[in-house]
Design goal:
mainly alpha, Ammonium transporter fold, 2 domains, 17 helices, 2% strand
């Protein structure tokens, strides 16, 4: 309202001065002075906190929490054998909780304060200086969010990224090693990548890398760490010889559906404001995921003779992953193409590529999140083009943007792989990565947590 009043005042005054100017050329300085005064008034307009934005960002935060707990937990839990069900639920829940607390202690400060292009400062250690009155930036100058709301929203991203990784070494890694690895990897990998892509003065942000909701920060980052873990922890006993079929595809389907619902908070919430930008991310998340489900089912029908429920659920997650970096800058038809391609490419990722890599990535973290994240990040550089329905500027160059996207993908892969390798080595040194063979055979529910999900 103040801004509108300032503009109207300037317009009336300029109009009046213009009339004077017609009679007296000496009035030119008056016009300039009035225009400058109007600009100063406009600059002095304080940014406002919009109640709708606050309500939306808190809702989106709940939706991302819902993705992790119970969504991801049930999706993963249904995929393992029944003797390891609780261990996976436990890992997802406790890793998420651990990272949320670390986010408050030092994570937020290192990710979202300005210091260097690669990491933030410790200015907001233990949320120092953050109060009920401090504000966080959105994508428009005149709109702000309560900083507490922004901190909580970003905490859920950090938590689910670390929780995603546990699927790669499910059914065989020590609980203490999972937690120790998570602390190290979060500190030295998630925080720098998050700062580089989203933080003030971030290296990749400055280069113009597009990652609306976490293709590099979340999915490639977690996928690569998971693959390294699968190699370093080693294959499950009997892998390739014994049946390791999921014990409950019902729970997996329920979990995948919860992920789809929660992902609207993940993607549309990343707009930080309840505007048409959020609506674009929202509709793209819907259409890309639906397209990926169809593509995966079609691919399975072609190559395996019949489509599966596990395939449909995996296709949904693949589509969600691939549209994540692109959702805020591509059009709905571009989103559908990204979804279709992700369904086919990730189907190959969990079959052909998995065989080539030779790692026992238990729940296909790399095949879905790594591969889908890479595909989505690179295709963002294509479909953001205005000629293809995206929101890019008129001088948008597909070639140069695809290069920037590819460069950011490579940096994320290398950084995550190196940090993950070191983190697993440290965890192995201090607590050992793997449970003893007899414990693995009996199942981690009983041996690690002293309980069982199913009483026979």
């Amino acid at each position: 309202m103040k801004k509108l009043f300032a503009i109207l005042l300037a317009a009336v005054t300029v109009g009046f001065a213009g009339g004077v100017f017609a009679q007296d050329t000496s009035a030119a300085p008056v016009v300039e002075a009035v225009v400058e005064a109007a600009a100063a008034v406009e600059a002095a307009v304080e940014p406002t906190v919009n109640k709708g934005d606050v309500a939306w960002i808190m809702t989106a935060t709940l939706l991302v929490l819902f993705m992790a707990l119970p969504g991801l937990a049930l999706f993963y839990g249904g995929l393992v054998r029944s003797k390891n069900m609780l261990s996976v639920l436990m890992q997802v829940m406790v890793v998420f909780s651990l990272i949320a607390v670390l986010w408050a202690f030092y994570g937020y400060s290192l990710a979202f304060t300005e210091a260097s292009p690669f990491i933030g400062s410790l200015d907001k250690l233990f949320l120092s200086g953050v109060t009920i009155d401090t504000l966080a930036d959105t994508f428009t100058d005149e709109s702000k969010l309560p900083e507490y709301a922004f901190i909580a929203f970003q905490a859920t991203f950090a938590g689910i990224t670390c929780a995603l990784i546990v699927g790669a070494f499910a059914e065989r890694m020590k609980f203490s090693a999972v937690l120790l690895f998570s602390v190290i990897w979060f500190t030295f990998c998630y925080l720098p990548i998050c700062h580089m892509v989203w933080g003030p003065g971030g290296y990749l942000l400055g280069d113009g890398a597009l990652d609306f909701a976490g293709g590099t920060v979340v999915h490639i980052n977690a996928g690569v760490a998971g693959l390294v873990g699968a190699y370093m922890v080693g294959k499950r006993i009997g892998y390739g010889r014994e049946s390791m079929a999921p014990h409950s595809l019902t729970l997996t389907m329920v979990g995948a559906s919860m992920l789809w619902v929660g992902w609207f908070g993940f993607n549309a919430g990343s707009n930080l404001e309840a505007t048409s930008g959020a609506a674009l991310a929202f509709i793209n998340t819907l259409f890309a995921t639906a397209a990926a489900v169809l593509a995966w089912c079609l691919g399975e029908a072609m190559f395996k003779g019949k489509p599966s429920m596990l395939g449909a659920a995996s296709g949904a997650v693949a589509g969600l992953v691939a549209i994540t970096p692109a959702c805020g800058s591509v059009g709905p038809m571009g989103a559908i193409v990204i979804g279709l391609l992700s369904g086919f490419v990730c189907l190959w990722g969990v079959n052909g590529l998995k065989r080539m890599l030779g790692a026992d990535d238990s729940l296909d973290v790399f095949g879905v999140h790594g591969v889908g994240g890479i595909l989505g990040a690179i295709l963002t550089g294509v479909f953001t083009a205005p000629s293809l329905g995206g929101t890019g500027a008129e001088d948008f160059s597909i070639a140069s943007q695809v290069w920037i996207q590819t460069y950011s993908v490579i940096i994320t892969i290398v950084w995550s792989a190196v940090v993950a390798f070191i983190a697993f080595k440290i965890a192995d040194m201090f607590v050992g990565l793997r449970v003893p063979e007899e414990e693995e055979r009996e199942g981690l529910d009983i041996t690690a947590h002293g309980e069982t999900a199913y009483h026979h």
